[in-house]
Specification:
Blueprint: H1 4-11, H2 15-22, H3 30-43, E1 59-64, H4 73-85, E2 89-94, H5 95-101, E3 109-113, H6 119-127, E4 132-134, E5 144-149, H7 151-165, E6 170-174, H8 179-194, E7 204-206, H9 211-222, E8 230-233, H10 236-248, E9 258-260, H11 266-270, E10 275-277, H12 280-295, E11 304-306, E12 309-311
Parallel strand pairs: 1-2, 1-3, 3-4, 4-5, 5-11, 6-7, 6-8, 8-9
Antiparallel strand pairs: 10-12
Helix pairs in contact: 1-2, 1-3, 4-12, 7-8, 9-10
């Protein structure tokens, strides 16, 4: 079996450096740490994950952007169900408090879905020996695993279906500049281009994922000389805000303008919003499972991509065919 000496020779560093890095005890450079972990994995060396429990904590922390959304509910249920079943406690915090709690004295692992927590901060946490699961981005760094939605494929399916229904004129309401938003917008643009449909940059509206920004986008759209046939929103909360504002001003959905979203939050099911259903309970469950497997020496840090599917409802209509059920 390979040992620390073999890793040290391959990495060109001392045995003590390898030992300290594998046991998360020193301040070696990120490049050196990454090289050592990579060589250890290549040689099949078992990294001593038991050290992650040196402080005896069995608490997992979930860091989210804020509490101003229904988006997190299913994810929280999935995480808590698995964590509690395995005897782990569960702590929830927002970005502003995260750095205070992400300490080996307090937690043994982190699950992240927070656009305000930067990659550099997550790398520092991983360097402390705390494994990290990200739900909103891929980082490609030792001891950080990503479980992300295949946004591009799901959004592509949605836009292709809308064009098949007869929609030709679109506006897009984006969220904060995140990987999720970039992938969804890229799919939107690519499908329009593939179908020979133009898209003017002034038809892109900027939001912040919240319902209020959807209402503001709707106000701006209603000021246009020619309204689009359909508004594509990068998430459901913005879509719900837009629908509310359109209706307050006497517009009918979808007769006067169609609206679609992404996520399938609980409220979407009661507002008949066409959207992309993300299996968030399962995503939270998988995140907790992956993290605890790592903590118990059975997991890996390979990226996991999960699928999502379109939920066709009444907020979009068929122009050239019968109504989609």
């Amino acid at each position: 079996m390979p040992g620390i000496r073999d890793i040290a020779e391959r990495a060109g560093v001392s045995i003590s450096t390898v030992s300290n890095v594998l046991h998360h005890k020193n301040s070696a450079s990120a490049e050196t740490r990454e090289r050592i972990f990579s060589i250890a994995a290549e040689l099949g060396y078992e990294i001593p994950d038991a050290k992650l429990h040196a402080k005896g904590t069995r608490t997992i922390i979930f860091n989210l952007s804020d509490f101003d959304t229904l988006y997190y509910l299913d994810i929280l249920h999935g995480i808590s169900d698995y964590a509690y079943a395995k005897g782990y406690s569960f702590l929830i915090c927002t970005g502003g408090n995260f750095s205070h709690y992400a300490d080996p004295e307090l937690v043994c692992g982190c699950i992240i879905n927070d656009v305000n927590t930067g990659n550099s901060e997550l790398k520092k946490i991983a360097d402390k020996g705390i494994p990290v699961i990200t739900l909103d981005r891929e980082i490609g760094y030792p001891r950080i695993k990503s479980i992300v939605v295949n946004n591009y494929a799901a959004e592509k399916q949605l836009i292709e279906g809308l064009i098949e229904m007869g929609y030709q004129s679109f506006a897009f309401l984006g969220g904060i500049n995140t990987e999720d938003n970039r992938d969804r917008y890229a799919a939107f643009r690519d499908v329009l281009k593939e179908n020979g449909l133009s898209f003017a940059r002034n038809q892109y509206y900027e939001g912040d994922w919240r319902e209020k920004s959807g209402a503001q986008a709707a106000r701006l759209i209603m000021l246009s000389e020619k309204m689009p046939e359909l508004l594509v929103c990068a998430n459901d909360m913005m879509a719900i805000g837009a629908i509310r504002k359109f209706r307050e001003n006497g517009l009918r959905i979808p007769e006067d303008i169609g609206v679609v979203g992404f996520d399938d939050v609980i409220v979407s099911r009661y507002t008949e919003l066409t959207t992309v259903a993300v299996p968030d309970y399962e995503r939270g469950f998988l995140a907790a499972q992956a993290l605890i497997d790592i903590l118990e020496g059975k997991g890996d840090f390979e990226t996991v991509r999960i699928g999502a599917r379109v939920k066709w409802r009444k907020s979009a209509k068929a122009f050239r065919k019968n109504e989609v059920k």
